Amino acid sequence: MGIGPGETIDPLCGGRLRILQKAQGYRFSVDSLLLAWFTRVRDRGRVLDLGSGSGILSAVLAFRFPTVEVTGIEIQEELARMARRTAALNGLDDRVRILCGDASEIRNLVPPESFDVAVFNPPYRKLRSGRMNDNAERAVARHELRGSLGTFLRAARYALRGGGEAFLVYPAVRGVELFWRMRRETLEPKTVRFVHSRRDSAGEFVLVRAVRGGGEELKVLPPLFLYGDGDGYSAEAMEIFREISEPPGPSGT
Coil, strand or helix: which one is 94? Predict the structure, then answer.
């Protein structure tokens, strides 16, 4: 399985996993790596990766949890093909299935209550907030052009069995909306961890584990600081990257 024009192969998990990406299109960032590390899947679990992009979460979770089966759903056909190629490149295509489809039409894609875990890093910029990225792939991945937070949460509620878990990452500044919408979809937040660039900076992202139909009880973990006193990553961030990947560049790409 070769590399195509304008593509890169990026190593993860100490080089044991290779991810195909566009050199100029959508590329995974540090929030995807943190979500891959935060997610836990029980033995022989079934995982739904909503908005799978080029397939990083599907591949990493299948690699980390060797008995699980992963189904990814990606609306952009070219990225869906790339995710399939990534799975095949790593010998994971027997446990990773990538569907090209719209999460808003989840009922046409997978049976109800058929997954143990759902993971997603949904588009987080509203349509008229901030400058729209000139690259179409990046714009769809980051702006609510073809899918919103509500779309992904409704899809997760439909696909998860009772007691199933959802893992996601979202900007901290939209945390109130996130928790409100999760409760509307009976996805009860159970564990949260805020991610900061530095100890003196505001939270940038929040990692959340929710349970479909779970009771009202929330565990707030200590904050995660990505950078130490200098320009380098903190000791905890480096440990995470050692577990998941080689350390990404400062831009998170």
Answer: coil
How far is Cα 4 from Cα 218, in angstroms, rounded to an integer?
46
**115: Cβ contacts below 8 Å, ≥ 6 apart:** 46, 47, 48, 71, 159, 160, 161, 164
- Check if the beta carbon of residue 241 is closer than 8 Å to that of residue 235: no
Q: What is the pLDDT confidence band of residue 51, given thresholds at 50, 70 and 90?
A: very high
What type of residue is 85? R
Q: Which residues pair with 73 in a beta bridge?
A: 50, 99
CA dihedral 35, 138, 68, 214 (to 10 degrees): 50
C-alpha 42/C-alpha 195 separation (Å) is: 25
Mind listing the pLDDT tens digit for each residue in 188-219?
A: 999 999 999 999 999 999 999 999 999 999 99
**Domain spanning 7-244, CATH architecture:** 3-Layer(aba) Sandwich (3.40)
CB 240 within 8 A of CB 33: yes
* Cross-strand bridge partners of residue 117: 47, 165
Report the pLDDT value the prediction gives residue 159, as an integer from 0 to 100. 98
**For residues 63, 66, 70 and 74, what is the CA-based torsion angle, rounded to 10 degrees?**
10
Distance, in Å, from the CA atom of 154 to the CA atom of 131, rounded to the nearest integer, reads: 27
pLDDT score of 246 more than 80 = no
**Each residue of 69-119: pLDDT tens digit?**
999 999 999 999 999 999 999 999 999 999 999 999 999 999 999 999 999
